[in-house]
Structures are given as C-alpha cells and as structure tokens.
Amino acid sequence: MRRVALLVLASAALAVGCRESINCGPWPPFAVVELVETWPVGTDLDHADIRDTHVVWLEMIAGARSTIELEHFYASNEAGSRLETVVLALEAAADRGVRVQFTADKGFYERTYAETLDRLDAHDGIEVDLVDYGALTGGIQHAKCMLVDGDDLYVGSANFDYRSLEHIQELGLRVKSPEVGAWVRAVLAYDRALAQGAEPESGVPGKRPSIKAVLENATGKAGFALSAGFSPDGHLPDQSSWDLPELVAMLHRATKSIRLQVLSYKPWDRQGEWWPELDDALRAAAERGVEVKLIVADWSDKPGSIEPLASLAALEHCSVSFMRIPQLTSGEIPFARVVHAKYLVVDDELAWIGTSNWQRGYFTKSRNLGFFCDGPGPAEQLTAFFDGNFSSAYADPVAPAATSERPAAH
C-alpha cells in the first residue's frame, strides 16, 4: 500500500482542548479507567452509566495533540453512519498536524474491505500499514485499539465498522495512563514493523506495569490493580504479557462465581485439534461448586458450534445462554445485530476485558489485546452488565446435552 508523507507540526497548540477530567495537566500516577459500550439500536440494552463507543472515540480524537495510533482488524464505513463522523474526525486531526497511523489485517483488506482504508491512506498526514499474521502464524490481526498521544487508550471488542457503533453490542475500556500506554505502544510498533518488512524491536518499556487504577467519575471507590495482557504467544515485546495463562489462573482462583461473555466459544481449533485448556478450567470450577454462567452470540446456534455449549449447560452449577438481537423492522443488516463483547468476571472481584474470542487461534496465532483488573470497580460494573444481559428478553438458554465429545470439524 502506498505510504504517505506525514505532516507533523512543531507546536501542539492547534490541538483541540485538553484532557477533560484531569484539569489539563498530565495524567496522575494511576490509571483512570472507563467502561465503554455500544448497544444495538432498537433494543433496551443501553446503560445510562456507560458512555457510547463513538462518543468516546470522537472525544479522544478531538483531544489529540501529536499522535493517534490505531490497530484494527479491518475498516468498513458507510455514508451517514456514526463511523463516518469518526473518519472525518481523523482526517481533521491529520489536517491540524496530528500524526495518524492505522494498522490493519492484510488478508482481510485484500479479500473484503479496502475502500475505507484506501480513503484514509490517501489523506495527507494519515499512514496505513497492513500486517500479515496469516503468513506469519496462520492467524489474523484481530486487536481493536486506539492510542492517543501515548497515554489515552481504547481497547475493546468494537471493530472499525459502522455496525460496531450502532448495531452490535460491544464493550471496551478507555484507559488514561502513560505507563499502560507505553506497553500497548510497544505492541503497535511491533506490528507496524512487521507490516513494513522491518525487524520488530524486542525491547520493552521496563517491567510490565500492574498499577493502581480508579474508575472515571467514581470518586470514593476503592482502587484496583490494572495490567495489560496480549496475544499471540511468541510475538510479544515481552512473553510475560501473554494473556492465556492469566485467564486460566483466574478461572482456577474462582470460589463463588464465573461470568463469561464472548462471541464464540470452542475447545478445538479450525483444524479440528482438541484444545480444552479453558474448557477444563470452567468444568473444574463447576465441579467444585462455583456458579458458572456463559453468554455467547446466537451465531453459535449451529452444528459444530453448539455441542461444547450444550455440554457445559449439562453440568451442575453451569448455565449457558445465547443472546438473540432482533433485526430492525427497516430491514436486515448483514454481519450485525449480534453480541460481540468479550469479558470475564470472577467472584465479582477479578475481571478481564479484551478482544479475543475463546478459541485457540485467538491466543496462539492472532494479535489480541486486553486488560486484567484485580479489585472492585470494573468487576462490579461488568457483573451488572452481564446480569442484565443474562436476565434480558434477548437471552435464550442453551438446552443441555450430556456429551463432551468433540464433533467432527466443520
């Protein structure tokens, strides 16, 4: 893809506004965290205490002074959509001298969505790179991330897709922290180097941080520890940041409850190889009396996908539900009207929120990002989010089936 010249102004005075909640100074020595959602229009899944994804993205872009770094699976825009306002905001940021860099998956660009990325790449001050995890590992660049000025960060399930800002349930975290931003920036730089055919740097910005954090606009609440976790194993600036072992450890720590929501859940990979690492941990928790609840998208209501869900639903102390988001009366929207959030809550105290579905390749072959939270705050908010979904009119319990056999690969 053609690389464009970058326009960088010496002064940041043209940037719009200042950090809205930190009195225009640098971030404090703790992370400030905010849960961010998209709720499908036409449903009652909106949460008054959680701001919308497109609102937060626009705010972050408007506050950019020097750099905006994005990494997304793909880009798919539509005229008049909420994403169009985001694209225009990125173009306006570039016009005022902010350096905009966008890394996307090469295979998906070539097979499916090129138009929006071509538009961005053609704009002065915006650089688009394509990373080929398909050739490298057999996986994809699946992260969804925006990093502004190195310290204002969004990571979550929302793709750079107009549907992800209006027609799909999405969930992410906005994190304000230069320490956390430095670690995510190291991952983004690694992928840009791969995309440009350069040797990725192996250095990391010090020890992976596990730092004190507080919820945005939640004064008086106890702090919690925040740390970042990434995939895939073998392609990280530091292997201690691999997220899969930490997720397994979280499940083994559960004593009361496990709440998990993902788009898809399978204990085997695309080649049909059995991979029960997470499945075994969930089953062990249920066997020791932990209340296990799981939500998946109704896209898994089909042969080859439903069997492991039905098997879990047959366990004592385990409940599984599909979420079914109805189409709008105005007509069907392809690849939308679905729940796409990815998060885990253990004992209302430990939480993970990220970009990985729970299948082997997302942890061993594909680029993904996420955060671990140890302590109250996000865990409590995510518990309420999950319970609202699980008890909603859109939840449809999966019928149990007493088998854990791996079906034939599909």
Outline the structure in words:
The chain is α/β, with parallel strands linked by helices. The protein has one domain: Endonuclease, Chain A, CATH 3.30.870. The protein has helices at residues 53-62, 82-95, 106-111, 115-121, 133-136, 178-195, 244-253, 277-287, 306-313, 360-364, 378-390, and strands spanning 31-38, 51-52, 67-72, 75-76, 99-105, 126-131, 145-148, 152-156, 160-161, 168-176, 210-215, 224-231, 257-262, 291-297, 318-323, 338-339, 343-346, 350-354, 368-374, 395-397. The strands form two sheets. It has an 18-stranded mixed β-sheet that branches. It has a two-stranded parallel sheet with strand order 4-9. A hairpin with a 3-residue loop joins strand 17 (343-346) and strand 18 (350-354). Mean pLDDT is 89; it is low at 1-24 and 406-410.
